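Hello Y.,

Per our agreement to keep a running log of every chain we model this quarter, I'm adding this entry. I've kept the format consistent with earlier entries: sequence first, then predicted structure.
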Amino acid sequence: MERMSDQDERWTRSTIYPDMWVDPDDDPRNSGENSAEGELATLQDFLKDYRLTLRMKCEGLAPEQLARRSVPPSTMSLLGLLRHLAEVERDWQNWITDGDPLPKLYGERDGDFEGAVAEQAVVDGAYADLEREQGATDAALARHPDLGERLGKDRIAVRELMVHRIEEYARHCGHADLLRECVDGRVGQ
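Predicted structure for the entry above:
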């Protein structure tokens, strides 16, 4: 079994800045447009960029690489992060509603990471689950553009939910940075 520490030297695709993932002109997060106007648009823009960053950190990897775990006893892997964030998106939908909670996607606690196995069907399912759950959460929140509005049983403010979502993706993008570097040595923002 290949150990994480026996990986390739550090590398990047950027030819301009050695600490960047890609050159600025090739970065899909750089739209060339002015920054978003208003608080809600700014929050949505940051969330979009962190979601895209996570996908970028996972692109070009085989199922075995995506499922490679970090340091024992941790179950964390890039594939596990994709599945975890799909589960978290679903949970945020539960925070918004007053109704019965949606069931967990991957079963019992830590099923998102434990079930992140090196099979193409699992990888495809993780991406599909993440996209579907992101869309459902986005659609549910789109009905509540007032950031001060309080939702769900816990009466959480839309603003707090948006900031928490950004924080969750940002934290896991940091994990993805390290996991990707361990998989093939690729580094960058």
